[in-house]
């Protein structure tokens, strides 16, 4: 009997794939030139399911556009103006997240996305050219891309680290609970003492 | 189970906060002086339970334990869970402060319902039967919570059936894990400290049995 129950239990646990049980949604967003990139997932390491709707809002809550996550929980959106972008995603079952990309992260207002000096193909062709021909804008973009490539994994690690439950938080929480109920017990005990 | 800020609509937030306040008021009136440590211990248990992740398939589930808290605390589940959820929101970022009322309602109201359903049965059961009722209490509390979560989401615009079904299906492993855990806890409590579970001396135990009064 016991083994049958355990067997059913195990079989069901294997069958049910779940994403809604993880409790907090985490993510980050950054800009690479005019391209806004980001990643959304759950605090237990699971990534947002592919095709999750990601909506982008301006600072005044007007909707700028939307995109969907790819296989690795990543999304990408091309900004059209250097304003603060609010990125919202709802992963269902009460799991939602809002990420904010400050306007400063985007290029200066003077250069528009269409006038941006480089696109991906020209970068690759530049590698074969002599580097000396790069103008200042092109150099800036190459540097910012290289830096963001290095920084992205660090950013991810930092967010994961921040979201880990720490022992001192756990102990602090228990301490608060015992403190609150200890106070309540003391107050009622005092009240009962005064009564007779 | 923890709904985060920004998902529920304002009417849902306000009304569930109101109902939670009512529940907390009833709970506080029901707590007798001697019960306070018990309520505190179960509040702390709930606070920790969410950190205990049990790997299930490719993901992991965490315990909620509102069934156990319901059958042991009754209405006192409201204040106990409110405090634990508040601290979880502050320390771990589970849920949020604005949705605290809704989360408390969704977790504590099933606890109270389970109390009314199973506490009378538990009180006149043998230890083994009590463990089975414990399993039922643990898993049905989760089932009720998923329905309530689905309901909150539905009132805020998500389609009820989809939201509730998703919450229910994804929580089937949690229901089983909670059922087993609650059964084990009830079994242990019946053996070593039945008065915690019963609110009154355990009827199946011999009244003068020395081991029930350690």
Question: What can you tell me about this protein's structure?
Answer:
With 196 residues, chain A is of the alpha+beta class. Chain A has a single domain (25-167), classed as Sandwich (Immunoglobulin-like). Chain A contains 4 helices and 7 strands; from the N terminus they run αβββββββααα. A 4-stranded antiparallel beta sheet of chain A has the order 4-3-6-7, with no helix packed on it. Chain A has a 3-stranded antiparallel beta sheet with strand order 1-2-5, with helices on one face. In chain A, a hairpin with a 2-residue loop joins strand 6 (85-92) and strand 7. The longest helix of chain A is centred in the C-terminal third of the chain and has 28 residues, at 136-163. Chain A is elongated, with a radius of gyration of 25 Å. The model of chain A is unreliable at 8-22 and 114-122 (pLDDT under 50). Chain B has a single domain (10-212), classed as Arp2/3 complex 21 kDa subunit ARPC3. Chain B has helices at residues 10-30, 36-49, 66-73, 77-92, 100-123, 127-155, 160-170, 172-192, 194-198; strands spanning 53-56, 59-62. Chain B has a two-stranded antiparallel sheet with strand order 1-2. Chain B starts with 9 loop residues before the first helix and ends in a 16-residue tail after the last helix.
């Amino acid at each position: 009997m016991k083994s049958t129950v355990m067997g059913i239990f195990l079989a069901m646990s294997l069958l049910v794939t779940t994403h809604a049980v993880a409790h907090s949604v985490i993510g980050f967003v950054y800009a690479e030139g005019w391209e806004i990139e980001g990643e959304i997932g759950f605090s237990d390491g699971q990534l947002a399911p592919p095709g999750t709707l990601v909506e982008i809002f301006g600072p005044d809550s007007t909707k700028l556009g939307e995109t969907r996550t790819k296989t690795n929980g990543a999304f990408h959106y091309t900004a059209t103006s250097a304003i603060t972008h609010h990125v919202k995603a709802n992963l269902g079952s009460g799991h939602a997240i809002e990420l904010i990309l400050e306007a400063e992260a985007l290029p200066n207002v003077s250069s528009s996305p269409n006038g941006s000096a480089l696109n991906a193909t020209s970068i690759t062709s530049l590698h074969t050219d002599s580097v000396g021909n790069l103008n200042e804008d092109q150099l800036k973009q190459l540097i910012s891309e290289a830096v963001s490539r290095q920084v992205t994994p660090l950013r991810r690690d930092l967010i994961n680290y921040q979201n880990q439950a720490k022992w001192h938080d756990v102990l602090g929480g228990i301490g608060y609970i015992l403190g609150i109920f200890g106070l309540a017990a003391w107050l009622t005990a005092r009240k009962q003492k005064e009564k007779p | 189970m923890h709904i985060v800020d920004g998902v529920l609509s304002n009417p849902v937030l306000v009304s569930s906060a109101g109902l939670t306040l009512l529940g907390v008021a009833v709970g506080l009136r029901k707590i007798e002086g001697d019960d306070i440590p018990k309520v505190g211990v179960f509040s702390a248990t709930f606070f920790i339970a969410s950190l205990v992740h049990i790997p299930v398939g490719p993901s992991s589930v965490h315990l909620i334990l509102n069934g156990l808290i319901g059958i042991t605390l009754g209405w006192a589940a409201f204040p106990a869970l409110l405090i634990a959820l508040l601290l979880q929101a502050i320390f771990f970022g589970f849920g949020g402060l604005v949705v605290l009322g809704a989360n408390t309602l969704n977790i504590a109201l099933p606890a109270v319902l389970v109390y009314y359903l199973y506490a009378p049965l538990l009180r006149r059961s043998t230890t083994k039967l009590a463990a089975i009722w414990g399993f039922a209490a643990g898993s049905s509390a989760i089932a009720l919570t998923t329905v309530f979560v689905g309901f909150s989401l539905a009132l805020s615009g998500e389609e009820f059936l989809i939201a509730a079904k998703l919450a229910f299906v994804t929580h089937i492993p949690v229901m089983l894990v909670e059922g087993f855990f609650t059964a084990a806890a009830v079994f242990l409590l019946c053996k070593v400290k039945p008065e915690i579970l019963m609110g009154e001396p355990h009827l199946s135990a011999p009244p003068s049995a020395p081991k029930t009064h350690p």
